[in-house]
Write a structure and sequence with these properties.
Elements (H helix, E strand, L loop, with lengths): L3 H11 L15 H38 L8 H20 L2 H5 L1 H22 L7 H14 L4 H22 L5 H4 L3 H48 L2 H9 L4 E15 L2 H4 L5 H21 L3 E6 L2 E6 L8 H16 L12 E14 L7 E4 L1 H11 L6 E4 H7 L3 E11 L3 E11 L16
Parallel strand pairs: 4-6
Antiparallel strand pairs: 1-3, 1-4, 2-3, 4-5, 6-8, 7-8
Helix pairs in contact: 2-3, 2-5, 3-5, 5-7, 6-9, 7-9, 12-13
């Protein structure tokens, strides 16, 4: 009675071309199968070229013997060898086609059988059964060494040769040379030779499979780490930091800086569970992140319920100030969708400034890409001393955008650390804003 394990083995061999073996080729290995097919195609191409050259040397050797009179005429082997070369050449040309790149396994079997069964056919036509000891062992050893994948294919090619030798020759009643027929060690020799070749192929592919999975896991972890790094640092700065282990700092002649703060968030959040508080902040800042990506701006950081974003760096952009203005207007529209208590929507206070800054990464742990300079300080003051629901900007911003956007002057405002400064409130784009929005410029919530 056939045990279940033997039935399983037989089933695997029977369906080797349609189903993958669970132990070596799990179902989630599509990329591995593609890599294996590519490997098999390359190795089979080289093996075919090598076989054609090898056959050519024997053909030339035979022709030289005939030419030098060492033998009277070339025997049928020469024609058999010539036919094999033609068959191998056809397989080599088929490998160059789209079909051949998709089915190197079929051409693998065809290659082995052309070489081995060609010689057997020649012996059969001449009326005797002669096991081609040299070609059998040489071909199967070369295949195991050059193309050590898909061990069921190796078993199939070997089985085909044995079936032909013992089956066809037996049906035709061809005689086996007496010396070979009496040597009972022949079958045992083939069994162990073929078996060792197949075991070596199995173990090699198992090792390659494990290596592939390890490299795949390593690439996944590397990609995950790369994504985490890019969530912290701009892509250009991240690449520079990975290449150079030093402090990174760069001056920019002009950048636009935006600070935003949720008005009265601390007071409004009183009594709200911490988890809910973090959740609403996460939703707000995630929406701001989406807007930053939309306008090709660089988010710098969040501090509590404050948000900082910059335009014009680390990659210079001549339209950075316009992008910051659009970002601020979109932030105002986005925050109106959120509320903490009741139906009253949240408001943000926004400050914008433009000017030279220094940007970079400092320290050795917990890297952050940050900005320094008077431009940054003034932008922060524009926000902290601005109006709830308003976008307060400096005169430099007003001078740059007054032809495209509507502004409301706040006049001279006392700014901490700077003294009196003329500031403006950004109302909207001229084309879309009917100048119906106005603020109480004396109020500084």
């Amino acid at each position: 009675m056939i045990t279940s394990s033997w039935r399983s083995l037989f089933r695997r061999l029977l369906f080797w071309g349609k189903r993958s073996l669970p132990a070596i080729f799990p179902r989630d290995s599509r990329s591995y199968r593609a890599r294996r097919r590519h490997f098999m195609h390359r190795r089979l191409t080289f093996s075919l070229q090598l076989a054609i050259v090898a056959y050519g040397t024997f053909i030339v050797y035979t022709l030289l013997k005939v030419g030098n009179g060492l033998v009277e005429t070339a025997d049928g082997w020469l024609w058999m060898a010539t036919g094999s070369v033609l068959g191998l050449t056809v397989c080599w040309l088929l490998l160059k086609t789209v079909w051949g790149r998709q089915h190197p396994d079929l051409l693998f079997v065809a290659t082995a059988w052309i070489i081995i069964l060609g010689e057997q056919l020649w012996a059969t036509i001449n009326g005797f059964a002669l096991p081609a000891m040299y070609s059998w062992t040489l071909v199967f050893l070369v295949l195991a060494a050059m193309i050590p994948v898909r061990w069921p294919l190796h078993v199939l090619t070997q089985a085909g040769v044995l079936i032909y030798y013992y089956g066809v020759n037996g049906l035709l009643g061809l005689t086996v040379p007496e010396a070979i027929a009496q040597d009972s060690r022949q079958i045992l020799y083939f069994f162990w030779f073929f078996g060792i070749c197949n075991i070596s192929v199995y173990l090699y592919e198992k090792l390659q499979r494990s290596e592939f999975q390890a490299l795949k896991s390593l690439r996944q972890e590397r990609d995950r780490s790369e994504r985490l790094l890019l969530n912290i640092l701009p892509a250009t700065v991240a690449r520079q930091l990975k290449q150079e282990h030093r402090t990174i700092a760069e001056s920019f002649a002009e950048a636009s800086v935006l600070f935003a703060d949720v008005v009265g968030f601390t007071e409004l959040s009183t009594g709200i569970p911490p988890q809910d508080l973090v959740q609403i902040l996460n939703e707000i800042f995630s929406e701001f992140d989406r807007l930053a990506d939309k306008h090709a701006l660089e988010k710098i950081k969040t501090i509590g319920d404050s948000y900082m974003v910059v335009g014009g760096l680390p990659v210079e952009d001549p339209e950075h100030l316009g992008a910051i203005a659009e970002m601020a207007l979109d932030m105002q529209a986005a925050i109106a969708q959120f509320s903490l208590q009741g139906d009253k929507p949240l408001q943000i206070r926004i400050g914008i400034n433009v000017g030279p800054v220094v940007a970079g990464v400092i320290g050795m742990k917990k890297f952050i890409y940050d900005l320094w300079g008077d431009t940054v300080n003034v932008a922060s003051r524009m926000e902290s001393q601005g109006i709830a629901g308003g976008i307060q900007v400096t005169e430099a911003v007003y001078q740059r955008l007054s032809d495209r956007y509507d502004f409301q002057s706040r006049g001279s405002v006392e700014i901490k650390g700077k003294g009196a400064m003329t500031t403006y409130l950004l109302l909207g784009a001229i084309a879309s804003n009917p100048l119906s929005i106005s603020f109480d410029v004396t109020k500084t919530d």
